[in-house]
Amino acid sequence: GPFGQLFRPDNFVFGQSGAGNNWAKGHYTEGAELVDQVLDVVRREAEGCDCLQGFQITHSLGGGTGAGMGTLLISKIREEFPDRMMATFSVVPSPKVSDTVVEPYNATLSVHQLVENSDETFCIDNEALYDICMRTLKLSSPSYGDLNHLVSAVMSGVTTCLRFPGQLNSDLRKLAVNMVPFPRLHFFMVGFAPLTSRGAHSFRAVTVPE
């Protein structure tokens, strides 16, 4: 597919089983079996860096793999690279748009890990994503593509200061210095404006004065 060109094929790590929306399974059994392979890939990439700033992890907090194995991976990376920054983009579940009944447990167990092991956590609210798609973008039944489009716009905005030259927040550490009042209070709500649907680009030009 189109994303095959973005990543090195030998950096993909996958297994045959899933965590079944069970945080403990992702953190202690199924995830624990895979985490060493993932760390080998991380180590190889880190060794190729001249000056490693930190890590960005994208995961959800409602399931078993993203929440359970995701937080395990974060804690293992923290052990191995204690002086590097750890930023996460975490999709927070909501009771209104819920896939599974155990989402609150998975999220609660994950937040405890993020408080201890993350430096910056950008919270992406699942309910708000659906709300924006339905109210603002007027999509009656949003697809995962529509939701991911919003998430990618937010991630692009957050990382703009890292990818382009500028005076403010030029790396992950400076971003944390400016945003985090106390080390454990590093959970940010993200916002984005103006919001346009994916199909509107052909007839709507967003200008600076607007």
From TrEMBL:
Q: Where in the cell is it found?
A: Cytoplasm, Cytoskeleton
- Which GO terms fall under biological process for this protein? microtubule-based process
Q: What Pfam families would the database entry show? A: Tubulin
Alphabetically sorted, this entry's keywords are: Cytoplasm, Cytoskeleton, GTP-binding, Microtubule, Nucleotide-binding
Q: Which InterPro entries match?
A: Beta_tubulin, Tub_FtsZ_C, Tubulin, Tubulin/FtsZ_GTPase_sf, Tubulin_CS, Tubulin_FtsZ_GTPase
Domain of life per record: Eukaryota
Q: Which GO terms describe its cellular component?
A: microtubule
The record's principal subcellular location, in a coarse class, is cytoplasm
Q: Where is the Tubulin/FtsZ GTPase domain?
A: 1-166
Its Gene Ontology molecular function terms? Answer: GTP binding; GTPase activity; structural constituent of cytoskeleton
**Cited function:** Tubulin is the major constituent of microtubules, a cylinder consisting of laterally associated linear protofilaments composed of alpha- and beta-tubulin heterodimers. Microtubules grow by the addition of GTP-tubulin dimers to the microtubule end, where a stabilizing cap forms. Below the cap, tubulin dimers are in GDP-bound state, owing to GTPase activity of alpha-tubulin.
Q: Tell me how this protein assembles.
A: Dimer of alpha and beta chains. A typical microtubule is a hollow water-filled tube with an outer diameter of 25 nm and an inner diameter of 15 nM. Alpha-beta heterodimers associate head-to-tail to form protofilaments running lengthwise along the microtubule wall with the beta-tubulin subunit facing the microtubule plus end conferring a structural polarity. Microtubules usually have 13 protofilaments but different protofilament numbers can be found in some organisms and specialized cells.
Q: Which family does it belong to?
A: Belongs to the tubulin family.
Q: What is this protein called?
A: Tubulin beta chain
- Organism the protein comes from: Ionopezia gerardii
